[in-house]
Amino acid sequence: MKNKLGIIGGMGPLATSIFFSRIIDSTEATKDQEHIWTVISSHSTMPDRTSVIVEKLDHDVIIQAVSEDIRIMEAANVERISIPCNTFHYFYDEVQNLTDIPIINMIDETMKEFSLKYGKKALVLSTVGTKQAGVYEKYAKPNNIEILDLDEKYVTQINDLIYEIKSTNIVDRPDFIELLEELFEVYNPDGIILSCTELSLMPLGKFANNKVLEAMDILVRESILQTGYQLK
To answer: Do 122 and 148 form a contact (C-beta atoms < 8 A)?
Structure first.
């Protein structure tokens, strides 16, 4: 049975548009009617997730905001919800409690994929919020994965890069390839996880499909399969 997909996005808007584009590109379809019926709420005014985490603000500012999106999805009778924002998954359990519609857990699915195909030592590149909240650490132990501790200078560099992309929409960054090379040399991980959807917007060059796992792509795959469609 083929189901309707809901996307709660806008975090950021460009990442959401690329996420949806990848769903279209990855779905086995030869005409409009064979693609997934998708309802998108690009909630760009959602409070900044990293700020809520780092400043230890009340989670209600997020929960109240996303409640509007949940109402939209329930009214549209979607059968699965995808949220293409890694940091937002810090609030996953609270948001899932708002609805009976299954929300695909991008973090859990990504860690399962890493354990299956990459190895045990992971380097996670993310916002400061995702790192401080231990979003990936929560799912590392059940999947027998060790998340390597990233030096603060790299954490800051990556976080700044993410917010530069959010503010400028400029994604052609050759310096990111250089950064990946440096991280592999310094830490020697089994693989690197791009755990912010903005990081997936940049060309990966020689690292495309090579020791770098994009959480966005895992969510794309699961969004297609869990709604009953086939991968191209």
So the answer is: yes
72-103 pLDDT, tens digit each: 999 999 999 999 999 999 999 999 999 999 99
| CA-angle at 159, arms to 146 and 88, nearest 5° | 70
Residues assigned a catalytic role: 85, 196
232 belongs to a structural domain? no
For residue 42, give every residue at least 6 positions away whose Cβ sits within 8 Å of its Cβ, in sequence order, or none.
Answer: 9, 10, 13, 16
Instruction: Determine the structural domain holding residue 64 and report its residue range.
Output: 5-105+218-227
pLDDT in tens, 188-211: 999 999 999 999 999 998 998 789
Residue 15: which CATH number? 3.40.50.1860
Contact 114, 37 (CB under 8 A): no
- The structure tokens listed for 188 are 């020697």
What is the edge-to-edge ordering of all strands in the sheet holding 80-82? 38-42, 5-9, 80-82
State the DSSP string of 110-138: HHHHHHHHT-SEEEEE--HHHHHHTTTHH
In a domain, 82, yes or no: yes
Look-up of token digits 């806008």: 10
Residues in the chain: 232
pTM over 0.85: yes
Are 96 and 43 part of one and the same domain?
A: yes
User: Are 148 and 205 found together in one domain?
Assistant: yes
